[in-house]
Amino acid sequence: MSNSMGTMFRITSFGESHGTCVGVVVDGCPAGLEMGVDDVQPELDRRRPGQSDVSTSRREEDRVELLSGVFKGRTTGSPICMLVWNRDRDSSGYERRRLTPRPGHADWTAHVRYGGFNDYRGGGRFSGRITAGFVMAGAIAKKLLMETLSVEVLAHTVEIGGIQARKLDPSEICMNREGSPLRCCDPEASERMVQALKAASSQGDSLGGAVSCVAFNVPLGLGAPVFDTLEGDIAKALFAIPAVKAVEFGLGTGFSSIRGSESNDAFTVNGGEIATETNRMGGVLGGISSGAPITCRVTFKPTPSIGGAQRTVNISTREETTIAIEGRHDPCVVPRAVPVVESMVAIALADHAMRSGLIRSVLEEG
Amino acid sequence: MSNSMGTMFRITSFGESHGTCVGVVVDGCPAGLEMGVDDVQPELDRRRPGQSDVSTSRREEDRVELLSGVFKGRTTGSPICMLVWNRDRDSSGYERRRLTPRPGHADWTAHVRYGGFNDYRGGGRFSGRITAGFVMAGAIAKKLLMETLSVEVLAHTVEIGGIQARKLDPSEICMNREGSPLRCCDPEASERMVQALKAASSQGDSLGGAVSCVAFNVPLGLGAPVFDTLEGDIAKALFAIPAVKAVEFGLGTGFSSIRGSESNDAFTVNGGEIATETNRMGGVLGGISSGAPITCRVTFKPTPSIGGAQRTVNISTREETTIAIEGRHDPCVVPRAVPVVESMVAIALADHAMRSGLIRSVLEEG
Amino acid sequence: MSNSMGTMFRITSFGESHGTCVGVVVDGCPAGLEMGVDDVQPELDRRRPGQSDVSTSRREEDRVELLSGVFKGRTTGSPICMLVWNRDRDSSGYERRRLTPRPGHADWTAHVRYGGFNDYRGGGRFSGRITAGFVMAGAIAKKLLMETLSVEVLAHTVEIGGIQARKLDPSEICMNREGSPLRCCDPEASERMVQALKAASSQGDSLGGAVSCVAFNVPLGLGAPVFDTLEGDIAKALFAIPAVKAVEFGLGTGFSSIRGSESNDAFTVNGGEIATETNRMGGVLGGISSGAPITCRVTFKPTPSIGGAQRTVNISTREETTIAIEGRHDPCVVPRAVPVVESMVAIALADHAMRSGLIRSVLEEG
Amino acid sequence: MSNSMGTMFRITSFGESHGTCVGVVVDGCPAGLEMGVDDVQPELDRRRPGQSDVSTSRREEDRVELLSGVFKGRTTGSPICMLVWNRDRDSSGYERRRLTPRPGHADWTAHVRYGGFNDYRGGGRFSGRITAGFVMAGAIAKKLLMETLSVEVLAHTVEIGGIQARKLDPSEICMNREGSPLRCCDPEASERMVQALKAASSQGDSLGGAVSCVAFNVPLGLGAPVFDTLEGDIAKALFAIPAVKAVEFGLGTGFSSIRGSESNDAFTVNGGEIATETNRMGGVLGGISSGAPITCRVTFKPTPSIGGAQRTVNISTREETTIAIEGRHDPCVVPRAVPVVESMVAIALADHAMRSGLIRSVLEEG
Questions:
Q1: Which domains does chain D have, with CATH numbers?
Q2: Which of B25, B68, B77 lies closest to D114 in CB terms?
């Protein structure tokens, strides 16, 4: 069904924005991985609202509750259920405008799909808040990948409102990232993005943007043709994040304007190992990892909740009307989406690593 | 596993480029759909090699064999197995260069992933020829969607080697498409693309490009959050096509440089029905169809097989060497990929239409 | 993975016997079904420990918490997470005997399978307590089947320790069932079973038994060949209940000693409808429901926890030793398994009813 | 969907009894397994019709065609498609009686399920002939299990028409099995079964029976709780065989009349390894293999096709009528089902062995 993903490392999502909680069940994590709330909480904190003055003022502590699957500080091989309780819920606005779907949101499609029975408060099941569950699962996937294969998954903001960060060498990603309120590794671009966000925000508007993600140390030979390709499974995982509208690997859309002699990565021998000289392909050939870092770029549409007046209709009377969405919204989802992108890539990689047999179902003790 | 896709309308792919055949099993197609080889062959013919002078000269008739699941001219509800036999196989070059992986191809990753046991002839399981199976399955999905929901899926070439077709109104797609050897609806751009292809080809090089796809008449309310979104499932299906490196919906990567007021589609009432005024979102909101046409753009990397010398290594001796790939290759995969893109989108939509209950498991008779 | 089951109506189980909680996520339940804790709690109460003097004295209130997927008293189409908290945990014995696996239990196989990282307290993930989650999910499945198709699933105890209830007409099932502490509809046999249980219990022993289950009003035409047959999917669901060792449909093992003329159900016309005269097949032909009640019989092994001395080994020293399991155990799992059997049958039927299109993804309002 | 089974070792079945062919696609078989038609044909020959005078006279050579996934005598890791062509088809009787469903067959349920579009000739998709595909896939699973884990799966006839073979020590299974036309290891019982079959046959009747199956050398620790238990997945696989009505493990239905002290298998140390002294549980504890042989028993209903007159109805006129089924049918399906049972058990075990990581996705070379 729609709320589970993965074959061997499998997550099941549940919860609504203004319901009791948001949670996730991780099934298939190998036994023996050291695990506790301290492994998950820091990732949740990176996604938490209210981290900067260009973020929503909704106050959620988002303390992870670890309900199953961990015993004596280690995973047991049983399903791991985790959740965060919803506390700072203000659903009043949603009751008032429930008959006037917000443009750019799923209000109308959800209403039709679920016969009007959907929980519309705060976007319900379609809220970005659902990604708290993705991040909890992602924290486990990231730790599993790091402990077993030394794989590290790092994302960063590369564009907001048309302002692009300069091209980075992978080694530059770590350094500056968490120093920027937007998780942009280019300090100069970051500063301009902040200004653009404040300008848009003050005009009751919002901005789109893009996140780049790199997975380092992914071993050669992970993935498969033909349907469960690395690209296909990573892309599917990324499109589960609300507001994602494009996913690219390697040179991405840039491939359409170049020649084969400019796109192929030549093979060479590097320390006795066969490797590609360049990495235009984004670390994947034939759906299988090439040993080079896996690189992808994810485009987010502007936050659909904007203060300016928008045309909509009353779904009961079918009369046209307008809506202006006051409330506590990020003017751009990209900065808080950075850990979510990392999580989804890590979850897809963990699943493939287990399917390929590169991670066993029981981890050896030290 | 990796060679099946879909939940209710499910396809299983098999076969290799230089093996006995390439085929597909379609499971879950409703009973009662009129079906015969004449419904499948025309789609295969659109994908067939050798259709123009900018296409490979491999001669494959690609006559579909319909082996099961059809009785008295209609589908029975049982799995439909279809295949095309491979005939014009010339594997000599592959034996000769089996130790020197071709840059941009899956030769090396496949070798590692399958321990050297993979069928390397013609790319084996990684060949574009595998998409003959996708197209056979797609022919059934397209007919099913048309007969039950009047959904039509149309793709066309929009860019080759940096030459872009002008923006088209959807109504213009049908008209000019099959008149162009490249399936480009803009005759002027098509002509320039042909010249660019001939130039690249004569220089032993190849070109990348892009295909746009539109699905018309997709009913409102098809799809679901959170993992099996329409975008996620369509993207995953598209990444199964060899050489695809980016998938975008609606404005796609363009969303990163605009504002919410420029990206949201206002709601209006149109003939009593609620609809969006514009379609920047590409017909999907919250993973669910909005009633507007579903639009996506697929970027293909340049054909990796090029005549010019490329650096590679001998996987046995680990010595560096060069390779020049003579042989029968399309200088750009895009024109023949057009029906494949349509097929993958149709297959994903058919699956979702069945999951959403919009297509029943038995079709009523006339 | 191992902790999810179903295609369209899908459940995911989590929790351990002596962990924080035991729970379940139900994904795919149609929107619009009236639902609240009052629909689930009565089923949990039927499974709860301590209902009679032939049941464990573990005291668990087992109050269901409904965490997601229900809004304004109805299902929303989103995943429904439910759990019961564990309270009356006494894990002391398990720490003491963790190196001496209990015969008939999964202690040893779990230890090997999960590298010694499994939560061994109270059987952990292998405990009968896990079925609390099955029963919560089953309560939803049962209500869904009843509201949409008038399907009713009723199980009852038919054998304990070799004492068999007399053959019952289906109409007799309801009447006496809940009046018996063992959920046996034959009062005379029930009384003898109670005596047998007390005798075994007083001798530090336990008894096996069997449950029969009937699903009434299952519409003709539900199910499918070849792998996801009704029998196959129901059987798989039933084998998820700890201690189940055999599943039979219709005449079951009795088929091996009769002739075709004695086993075939003749067709007749009944009120204008085609029906079988008899129901030896248990309501299934070719994996598809025939319109007759679906009947199955489930055999449970004796509770493996017995007070008498049993030979076992120390897994650390590999020395042979003995174990006597004091503690709070049902001398026979069958009486409390009755609602669990109903739940698993209902879950499998709900999934097939949705797959066959007999239950839509949105229920119409009255 | 209904025609695929398995998670890591996955089979997809296609074809009809009187269609063009019957086939199977095996996806997920590791690369590097020596494989050729000679590995598959002997198993097909064991299932082939016309092996004895108590078997149907339909003449099918059933020569396997190996269409993909094998290269240079080894599996490649790609899907393996295999089929047998149907040749000796006589569909005349089926056209004549298509409006009068045969009791005990799926004619009527299939008609309703598929809206009358099903291929009714020879039972179509519901025919025992479909199991030719199971046996081809089973041949691969059996070889894979033997080569990697030395697992051997052996079934034999233990009951026909109430005549039971004497209890056998596992070592006796191999010796006499193929010497009996019924694959019964007890020569004396076999002789009586032959007489019973001839008697039933001469009276236009048929007999039910049972097959026992043992899997030797299954390594400890294969399988999982809670839904994908070994028992559950084996049972589901077995119920895909037409005419199977009961599946038991270990003492099976016998557990309902014994005590815990009689059913638990004590642990002991055997050559330094922990093992059970007895094997009442059938080699499975908590859904996980215990290291003891896995034992199950499968009950088959009598062949529903019998020559005697049976009451049925005309589905068009709804009038009651009778039917007598002349034609070429086995009076008991059990003897030819023996290799099918082995196949289904082997397929389920191969899948679990791969999921548990006990079989890798690439086999090492010698």
A1: 4-355 (3.60.150.10)
A2: B77
